[in-house]
C-alpha cells in the first residue's frame, strides 16, 4: 500500500508548491503589467496637460 501511495504523495507534494509559485508569479506579473500601464497613462496625460 505504501508503494502505491508514494508516487501519488510525491506528485501532490511537487505539484502543489509549483501551483502556488506559479499563481504567485502570475499575480505579480499581472500587477506589474497593470501598474506599468497606469504609469504610462499618467505620463501621457501629463504630457497632454503640459502641451496645452
Task: Please provide a written account of the structure.
- The radius of gyration is 23 Å and the shape is rod-shaped.
- The chain has one helix at residues 2-51.
- The protein is mainly α and 52 residues long.
- The chain contains one helix and no strands.
Which regions are unreliable across 5 or more consecutive residues at pLDDT < 50? none
> What is the radius of gyration computed over CA atoms, rounded to a whole number of angstroms?
23 Å
Number of strands: 0
Q: Rough shape?
A: rod-shaped
What does the average pLDDT come to?
Answer: 86
Helix/strand/pairing category: mainly alpha
- Biggest sheet architecture: none
Please report the distance between the alpha carbons of the first and last residues. 76 Å
DSSP strand content: under 5%
What oligomeric state do the depicted chains represent? single chain
Share of residues in helices: over 70%
Topology as a string of helices (H) and strands (E) = H
User: What's the total helix number?
Assistant: 1
Overview features:
52 residues, 0% strand, 1 helix, mainly alpha
Map the helices and strands:
Blueprint: H1 2-51
Question: Can you summarize this structure?
Answer:
96% of the residues lie in helices and 0% in strands. It is mostly helical and 52 residues long. The chain is rod-shaped.
Amino acid at each position: 500500500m505504501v508503494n502505491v501511495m508514494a508516487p501519488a504523495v510525491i506528485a501532490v507534494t511537487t505539484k502543489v508548491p509549483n501551483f502556488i509559485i506559479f499563481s504567485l508569479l502570475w499575480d505579480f506579473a499581472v500587477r506589474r503589467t497593470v501598474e506599468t500601464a497606469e504609469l504610462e497613462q499618467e505620463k501621457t496625460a501629463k504630457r497632454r496637460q503640459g502641451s496645452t
